[in-house]
Amino acid sequence: MKYLFLFAHPDDETIACAGTIKQLTNQGDEVILISATDGNGGEVHASAAEDVQRLGSLGALRRRELKKVSELLKIAELRILDYVDGEITNSQVWGKMTADFIDLIDQYKPDFVVTYDHTGWYFHLDHVAVSIAATTAFRQSSHRPKGLLLSFVKSVGSKWKYVFPEEFPVTHTVNALPVKEIKIQAIQAHASQLNSVTMLSTIEKLQKGEKSDELYQLVFATKEGQELLAKHAVFKQVNE
Predict the structure, then answer these.
(1) 4: left (phi over 0), alpha (psi -120 to 50) or beta
(2) CATH classification of the domain holding 189
(3) Beta 30-37 vs 77-83: how paired, if at all?
(4) Whole-angstrom distance, CA of residue 135 vs CA of residue 131
(5) Domain that holds residue 70
(6) Using one digit for the tens of pLDDT, what is the confidence trace for 157-175?
(7) Lower CB count within 10 Å: N or C terminus of the chain?
């Protein structure tokens, strides 16, 4: 099967989905990864300052890091689009970005599309933008994928309790522990971003062998898509 992952920045795919991606490619599935930006607007870990200076920009370094991760995870094709980190506009979301994502879905003809949940994990506006454009493109593309999965980075404990419930609507999980060493390597490959608390805590949990599920909500599936996920070797349905 073929999976299209749509994210905003290099490292998003690793934090939320590296275990999923690696297990999919291990079983022979094809994964295409799209990053809308090169992450040039992110913060830089002090240890990466010399690399940024040598390469001329943080974006160039993060492109190199993402290429290394894509090779590590055996991603079939990686594409980084030309949107500007931190400057994605409303008109782009409903215009060019949605059109670009429609073209990508029609070009690659994936069985499943994966993107952020509509909160953008923590209301990061670039993440929200990609989530909106991806779900809109999913509905409007000529090719009809079998399913759309939204990615979460946690299942409970929203600080936005007046907007969202305490528990997020996770329907499927992927256990990252079988490929924990690869996920740790992928996180560490995003060296310019290792000041992220989420990255460091994820590495610690994986090293300790603690439960480290990757979380998804299935928001649409054809009958065939439902049947495929019901017996899927990687995605496990959450018991209600």
Answers:
(1) beta
(2) 3.40.50.10320
(3) parallel
(4) 6
(5) 2-237
(6) 655 566 666 678 899 999 9
(7) C
| Mean pLDDT over the full length of the chain | 93
pLDDT digits (tens, 9 = 90+) for 48-61: 899 999 999 999 99
Q: Which residue has the tokens 């509509």?
A: 118
The count of domains in the chain is 1
Q: How far apart are CA 51 and CA 57, in angstroms?
A: 9
> CA angle at residue 213 from 195 to 231, to 5 degrees?
145
Read off the DSSP letter of residue 74: T
**Torsion from C-alpha of 34, 177, 230, 147, nearest 10 degrees:** -10
78: β partners: 33
The helix/strand/coil state of 30 is strand
Alpha-carbon span 213 to 17, nearest angstrom: 10
Nearest to 113 by CA among 4, 35, 212, 40: 4
Return the sign of the alpha-carbon dihedral for residues 124, 128, 4, 64. negative
Nearest to 173 by CA among 118, 217, 114, 113: 217
